[in-house]
Amino acid sequence: MTALYDADYARRYRSRDDELAAVDSYHALVKWIGDVCDRFTHPIDVLDLGCGTGRYFWGLRHVNTLTGLDASAPMLAEAAQPTHASDISARDVKLIRGDLQTHEFAAGSFDLVYSVGVLAEHVALTRALVERVARWLKPGGRFAFTTVDPRSPDVPKTMPRRVATALLPVAAGAVGDALHRRLMAGGMYGDERWIRLSLSGLFKIESLDRFQSDVHLHGRCVGIKT
User: Core-most of 22, 50, 167, 201, by most CB within 10 Å?
Assistant: First the structure.
């Protein structure tokens, strides 16, 4: 997959960062990330999971250390000169190349792990991934992330998907669970039910809503490690 995110792609993606200055939903996501930071009462250590070009670095507040993890070296090269660089307040920024599904951090490394536009979009939101994030967080740490909701207008409305969506509200038990897993495509989409199931027992959901960006209808969640 990393071959898809070559130098040309990374440059185009970085150019898109500049264009987003005129997009209200982008600024709303930046504000959302900043508001999550404000929920802490002390300087925080933060991990951007799938940081890309560092599109949201400047929205963070009260940050001691900021770690950006991404599988693409060209994207990380762009993240070294992110949008709104002069507004980034983190004391220390470290960029690491690694696969978020296999890379390891020491337990209790971060106060906040966030991921925007990655989970249930480019990488499946799975229980195993949530368990990894939980290990990396300090007690009381937060996990803030977005997903692509399967009801997003850009999701292809195939006939099997239409039928499954219509049946889901009346399907119970194991049949309903299996139908729901199919609709979520194994975590490549994430509705409220999938998010709650993925976080259950590991995080208390602090906030969960739907958010319409310029591209998708998203699920948007903040969980507190239990």
Answer: 50
Contact 199, 134 (CB under 8 A): no
CATH of the domain at 140: 3.40.50.150
* Model confidence pLDDT, tens digit, residues 84-141: 999 999 999 999 999 999 999 999 999 999 999 999 999 999 999 999 999 999 999 9
d(CA 134, CA 124): 16
pLDDT beyond 70 at 2 = no
Q: Under 8 Å CB-to-CB from 8, ≥6 apart: which residues?
A: none
Residue 116 lies inside a defined structural domain of this protein: yes
Q: Per DSSP, what are the bridge partners of residue 75?
A: none
Sign of CA dihedral 164, 169, 186, 210: positive
Query: Do the domain assignments include residue 155?
Result: no
Return the structure tokens found at 40. Answer: 């802490």
Domain span holding position 6: 2-150+188-225
Is residue 1 over pLDDT 70? no
Count of domains forming the chain: 1
Handedness of CA 148, 214, 28, 11 (dihedral sign): positive
Instruction: Yes or no: say if 172 and 108 are a contact pair by the CB < 8 Å rule.
Output: no
CA–CA dist 224, 220 (Å, integer): 14
